[in-house]
Amino acid sequence: MSSKANLDVLSRQVAYSGEGISVKSLETDIQKERTIQDNKVEELKVLRERNVNIQSAMAEELKKLRKFGDYLNGTATGGGFWAGFKEVLSYIPGLGSMSMSQRSIEELLKAQYQVSARRVKEAAEYVDTLKQSEQDLYKEIDRINVRIVEMAKNEREALNYVLELKALQEQLEGEEQAVEAGSVEQRDIQANIDKVRAKLAEHSTNVQLYGSAEERYARLKENTRKLADTIRNLAQDIQQYTTASSIKLDMASAQIQAIGRAADASTVMLEMKRSLDVMTESMNVTTQFVSDTQIFFRTNLDTFINELDTFDEKTSTVLEDNLRKSKEVEDARIQAAIDKAVKRSGAPAASPPSPSGA
Amino acid sequence: MTVVALHTQALVQPEAATYLDLLGRSLHAARLSNAFPERRPLQQSLETLAESLRLGLHGELYVDSRAGLPNLASFTRPLTDKSVARESLTRMGDRAALEARAGEAEVFARLAAKHAYYEKLQDRELAPVDHQRVLLRRHDPASGTAAFRIELTKLDASGVYVRLQIELTQVSSLWRRKVIDLDKDGETAAASEAFRSMVYRCADLDAEALFMRMHGAEGVSVERVQRGVIGPVLFAMPTGSGVQVIRTAEAPDDALGREWHAWSVGAGAAEHERPELLAAFATDSAALDIREERSNDPLSPLLRDRLRDQEQARYRALRERYPFKVFKDRKFVATPGLKTVAHATCAAAGTKNMIHALQIG
Question: B interface toward A at CB cutoff 8 Å?
Fold first, then answer.
């Protein structure tokens, strides 16, 4: 006698979708998803760190630009204009030790402007990278959702099959009661009951595995969504900040040039003033010298003249004395010659000439 | 008028694209010599700006409302983009992959466009905001004499784009501080910081004043000072709706500016159908080899013609100390509607200037 129960249930293939499931395969799949998530978290960490660095640098550059503006347009005067101005100039590498008039302020400000623009641009570039990451995560969420639905469907398949097996088991157990103990029929029914139990064990495990997988994928999805939201918020924050900074830079470019040119003009004026100061000092010294000389001459002129007179008188005396002495020598020489001539001729010697030569 | 900040005018699409196209073509039509800032980098900067606006990477173009040229922010933009291009391309990954995901989200389409923009930008030579270099022309180690050319390209604070070239000779001396230093092999040179800054600061002086300022400084003998100035540019762009015209907002208050204003309220007032642009290109030289002192620039007569009688004698005495002569010239590029403005400006000054035609569209 054959069983009245529908034994086709035992041979039916259950339509699970996917590649089948085991504890090991589920752990492997979940691990894969977690790895993707961990990578994104790592990526986010790197992005956040770089973003913090860039934003700090950007804030610093913008602060320098603003300070330039403040000091140059006179809104910051603590410690005096030039003290403040020198302070902001000291922010620029290589300039701190340099004399102010060495470098063009306009050129320096434009260079600073370009550095700031680059910082803003670098930060802005991260917005797109973050948006790309966000989209990658949403795509991941879609993929996880597909898995969740798949697991839910498989769980339902497993549950339905388990219910069918349970019904078959009960039916077979009822039939077993109705047949003679130890008969061939009973042995046949018991054999089918064993098959049902084996199937029940297999598909009950599937119910648990698919149910567990569904829950774990759902939790994974929730974490991925949080990560995507974090990245989106970060991107929005950076976008707002960089957009504001970018607008500020765009609007400030003409001011930067105007301020630079005005500062250069001030430097030129300072150089001119220094030059005039030197000139004034020279003129003062010269005037003082001329004035002192005049006083000296005025107070000493008479003495000079007297001294000159005295000198002339002495000179005259000396000259006259010299002339007198020369005359005496010459007269003596002439007398000697006359005496000699008289002596040779035997004539009486003439009297010597008078000293006056008369 | 769309003046959005100090001397800053904002243009949006499609007027910005029309303006950039006309300005770029005006540079070509002007047949610029090497007295002017290099045309190719400037044109590439303009093309880059146009492309970034077309791709929506930037929303507005900022123009100096006095000079009618892209301002510091606009000049800086392509340079900044180029400076981050390489690193950004590495982060973006493959362009084909981005294009494949273009339908997925807006960011991928934008990144694919930006990828193409950055790739192209990497090979472009762009116009600098500031660039100064010293070129060695001759060097005679025996006499310690070296001849140099200093070149400065500068986006001037007045909004015009200038190239300044100074040719000079320096005799080295142990006791004298040199304004330019040669390296040990005698092949490359660099100006001292003070001299470099003096050149930069004085770049907006005319060639005559610059010659006198530089000549004799620290053993330097100047042979030639030449300035090439691009700008001002005057434009009138009908807006998309065709009922308004965007014009250069703060045109200069000189002969050209006055003719322009007259045109704007006269023939140009009704100009709502086609864009118009007029660009001026001036040269100003002071050099030993100029034979006749003359100005053919309707906007800039010779200094001697501008001085009062009581200043003339002092000026003549000053000039006798320097052997150079001055020559000034200016040419224009104009669309058909604005040719009359250029003609009237030249006629009023009695100069004969080149006026090149710029076709629209």
Answer: 4-8, 60, 62, 64, 71-73, 76-77, 79-81, 83-84, 87-88, 91-92, 101, 104-105, 107-108, 110-111, 114, 129-130, 155, 157, 193-194, 197, 200-201
Residue A121 to residue B76, Cβ atoms within 8 A: no
* B81: chain A residues, CB-CB within 8 Å: 121
Write down the H helix ranges in chain A. Answer: 8-11, 23-72, 81-89, 105-178, 184-345
Residue of B5, B125, B128 whose CA lies nearest to B63: B5
Asked whether residue B249 is assigned to any structural domain, the reply reads no
Q: How many domains does one find in chain B?
A: 1
User: Mean of the pLDDT values across residues A312-333?
Assistant: 73
Structural domain of residue B77, as residue ranges? Answer: 3-122
Task: Give the fold, CATH level 3, of A8-279.
Answer: Helix Hairpins (1.10.287)
- Per-domain boundaries in chain A: 8-279
Q: What is the pLDDT of residues A254-287, one digit of tens each?
A: 888 887 887 777 666 666 666 566 656 655 665 6
Read off the pLDDT of residues A324-338 as tens digits, 9 standing for 90 and up: 887 787 778 777 777
State whether residue B327 is helix, strand or coil: strand
Domain annotation covers residue B19:
yes
**Burial zone of A269 (CB within 10 Å; 0-12 exposed, 13-18 middle, 19+ buried):** exposed
Most A CBs within 10 Å, among B107, B121, B177, to test the A interface: B107
- With a CB cutoff of 8 Å and minimum separation 6, the contacts of B186 are B136, B139, B141, B146
Q: What percent of chain B has pLDDT above 70?
A: 91
Report whether pLDDT(B61) > 90: yes
